[in-house]
Every structure is written in structure tokens, then in C-alpha cells.
Design goal:
alpha+beta; 432 residues; single chain; 19% strand; 13 helices; 2 domains; elongated
């Protein structure tokens, strides 16, 4: 054994062994109630670190998940800004059909329209027209159902079926009686009034200088926490295509779901096929509006700020517990120093105690988080107006927070132990 190893054993290993022995004896002889209370505080600190920030971020995570499942699919193909339709739509659709890694897809037509309902009974001559503007989306019902389970968004009436050329579904946020914005005075916002299932509405399209009108019967009201559902109207694609005077085979959106584990391959394949064309091929995460990403970052910062406060509280708690423990045992510490136990071993003893509280609290916190809270919120998400909030907690993120908590705990135990140990041995023994 060389000199370095001997020095290491003398300086660290033996003091650690002695410190471990002293720590285990002190923990066994300490008050069970006090120990349980300290561990409980560490559990609360861990939950504050993981759960509070996880719920804040989970608000947006739930929104992103709904965006993917209800609208974009795994991959969303749209025209580049300034373009009205996906270039070479028919060829792109044929390519998607022949890709063995594609599970299902939905091609959608989309055109802006003004939809007029009937005026209220005995309406004054100067009453504003009962109308709303928005996008009318043409869908193929069976394909859309496979991609987004579209029928679950119908809150009143029935979903579209093949052959329903004269029927329309209207988003809840376009009808005053159903809209989330009905009680807000927004300049320029027009909502349909007293329009429900079975009523007739007239849609007016303006395309390439041509005006086309079509009368529809309202077959249902659709509502979702995704704006692309609640603020749009839906008709059968074949019926809408016959109304379009030009580019009747060019679609505006294609939502694609890949088979499990093949999304990167499908994405690369589609991007390769559309290279050079004026189209955008995006994953669901890329297609999410940028302002939602900014909100997510803000929530992360807010969660980290709250977690920092919890860490400060935990470190102060551990500091006080270890400091009081060391002060009350000052005479015993002085005697141990007097009989030859190294001060470093005594410091290790209190550091090990602090780590015990931190490790035990973290283990219990992990069990509560992943054994109870996360499964619960996955099944029973928090109902917010814009999303179903979940607990966004991951194993890697929790491991980082556990490491931070243990480091803080280590220093919170080391500092007071060092303060007490450095006092004069004789003064400690005599209680001076």
C-alpha cells in the first residue's frame, strides 16, 4: 500500500467509518417522533420540488397532448406561410398511403367562410346580422375518426357520416349559447345566436373572386379544449370539394399517425419526399403555437422559484435540527474529542444523520409521487378551461431534484457540526 492510500484511509476512510457508527447509534437512541417529524418535513420538501412544478408544467403538457391527439396527429403537413394549399396534395396523399409505417392519416380541406343564421324573432331593422366568420373544414369522417376520434367532441347532436353533404358541425366557440367567450366584450367578435341542432345556416365562401353560397343543416355542436376544434366548422370533404371552383383536389392539412416506434422514420421519409416543395412537415411538438412554448417556459421558471423556496426552508430546518442536537450534546462531543476521536469523524456523524433524513424523505416522496399522485392525475386530470392538467414528473427530472435536495441537506448538516466541533475541547467538556 503506497503513501497516498495510507493517507486517504487515515484522513477520510477511518473517520467516515467512525462517523457512521456514531450516526447509527444516535439515530437509534433519538426520539422516534422527532425523527418522523423531520422525515415528514423532507417528504413535503420533495413533493414541493417535484409535484408543484410538475403540476404547473403539466397544465401545458396536457394541452400539448390534446393538441396531438385531437388535431395534429404525430406529424402535421401544412402549406408554408403565404401558400393556400399543400403543393402536390394528391401525390403526397398517395405517398402517405403507400408508406408501411403509417398507421392512419386524415387529409382536410379548409376554407374561410361567413356563416349566417336566422335573426331573432321580431328583430329590429338595425339589428346586427346573426353571423360568424371562421374556417369550414372538409373531412372524411372515417379517416378523421381513426386519427383524432373526432366523434367524442360532439357535445350535442350527431357526428358527420359519409353522404352528409348538406349537414354541418359548428364549433361551440362560434355560438353564443355555448361559447367560452360569450360573456366577454371583444371588439369585432361575432357569434351565432340561437343556433342549435336542426337549424339551417347559410355559408358564403369567397374564392378567387367568386362567391359561392351553400345552405346547411346543423347536425351537431363540437367542443374541445383545442381551438382547432371549437373555433371551426366541419362538413364532408366530398361536398365541400364540389363547391370549390379551383384547386378542388388540393388540401390544406394532412394529419399523420405513425405506427409505434416509427415516427422518426416516417418524419424523415415525408421530409425527403416534400423537399423542394412549398410545404411544412412538422412533428406535433413543432406545430404547437410558439406562445404556448413561451408559457411553458414561464411555468417552469415559476415552478423552479417555488422549489427554491422549499429548498431554503428544508436546509434551514436541517441546520437548526443538527445545530440544536450538537449544542445539547456539546459535553459529549468534548469528551469524544478528549479520548482521541477525530473531529472529522464527529462531523461525518452529523452529515450522515442529515443525509439519512434527506434520503428517507426522498424515497418516501418518490413512492408517493410515482405510486399514487402521477397515476391518479393520469386517470383524473385537473379540468382547466384550456387543458386537462396532468402531473409532469419524470424519473430523470426527479433524480436531479433528489440530488439537489441531498446536496443541500449535506451542507445543512455539515455547517452546524463544524461550528460545534471547532469549539475548545475543555470548554465543551466543562459546558463553558
Amino acid at each position: 500500500m503506497n503513501a497516498f492510500h495510507q493517507a486517504f484511509i487515515h484522513r477520510f476512510l477511518r473517520p467516515m467509518q467512525v462517523g457512521w457508527f456514531l450516526a447509527t447509534r444516535q439515530l437509534r437512541r433519538s426520539s422516534k417522533g422527532t425523527t418522523a417529524l423531520i422525515v415528514f418535513i423532507m417528504v413535503l420538501t420533495f413533493l414541493n420540488l417535484v409535484v408543484v412544478s410538475g403540476l404547473l408544467v403539466g397544465l401545458l403538457t396536457g394541452s400539448f397532448d390534446q393538441f396531438k391527439k385531437s388535431y395534429s396527429g404525430d406529424i402535421l403537413i401544412t402549406p408554408k406561410p403565404g401558400r393556400e394549399f399543400i403543393e402536390e396534395s394528391a401525390q403526397t396523399i398517395a405517398y402517405i398511403k403507400n408508406d408501411p409505417n403509417v398507421a392512419n392519416f386524415s387529409a382536410r380541406y379548409s376554407v374561410l367562410a361567413n356563416v349566417r343564421g336566422s335573426l331573432s324573432e321580431n328583430a329590429p331593422a338595425k339589428e346586427k346580422a346573426n353571423q360568424a366568420g371562421g374556417a369550414i373544414v372538409g373531412i372524411e369522417p372515417s379517416s378523421e375518426e381513426q386519427v383524432t376520434h373526432f366523434s367524442k367532441f360532439v357535445i350535442k347532436g350527431q357526428t358527420l357520416e359519409s353522404g352528409d353533404d348538406n349537414y354541418i358541425l359548428i364549433g361551440a366557440n362560434l355560438i353564443k349559447e355555448y361559447s367560452s367567450f360569450a360573456d366577454v366584450d371583444i371588439p369585432g367578435l361575432e357569434l351565432l345566436k340561437k343556433v342549435s341542432v336542426g337549424d339551417k345556416v347559410k355559408a358564403t365562401f369567397s374564392l378567387k373572386g367568386e362567391t359561392v353560397t351553400k345552405e346547411y343543416v346543423v347536425k351537431g355542436i363540437v367542443k374541445s379544449k383545442v381551438d382547432q376544434i371549437s373555433q371551426r366548422m366541419f362538413v364532408i370533404d366530398s361536398g365541400l370539394r364540389r363547391l370549390l371552383p379551383v384547386n378542388e383536389w388540393e388540401v390544406q392539412e394532412i394529419a399523420v399517425n405513425a405506427k409505434p416506434g416509427t415516427e422518426p422514420a416516417v418524419l424523415a421519409s415525408l421530409r425527403g419526399f416534400t423537399e423542394g416543395k412549398l410545404n411544412r412537415v412538422q412533428t406535433s411538438a413543432e406545430a404547437i403555437p410558439s406562445f404556448l412554448r413561451q408559457v411553458e417556459q414561464t411555468f417552469k421558471i415559476l415552478g423552479n422559484a417555488l422549489s427554491s423556496i422549499a429548498l431554503v426552508v428544508a436546509s434551514i430546518t436541517i441546520f437548526i435540527v443538527i445545530f440544536i442536537n450538537a449544542v445539547t450534546r456539546r459535553k459529549f462531543i468534548g469528551i469524544m474529542k478528549g479520548i482521541g476521536i477525530e473531529p472529522r469523524a464527529i462531523q461525518f456523524a452529523y452529515v450522515f444523520q442529515a443525509l439519512f433524513y434527506g434520503v428517507t424523505g426522498s424515497i418516501v416522496g418518490l413512492f408517493i409521487t410515482f405510486g399514487f399522485l402521477k397515476p391518479y392525475f393520469d386517470v383524473h386530470p385537473i379540468d382547466f378551461p384550456f387543458s386537462d392538467g396532468v402531473l409532469a414528473a419524470t424519473a430523470s427530472g426527479s433524480a436531479i431534484r433528489v440530488a439537489i435536495l441531498l446536496v443541500v441537506t449535506l451542507f445543512a448538516g455539515f455547517i452546524p457540526a463544524t461550528i460545534i466541533v471547532r469549539r475548545n475541547t475543555l470548554d465543551s467538556i466543562l459546558g463553558r
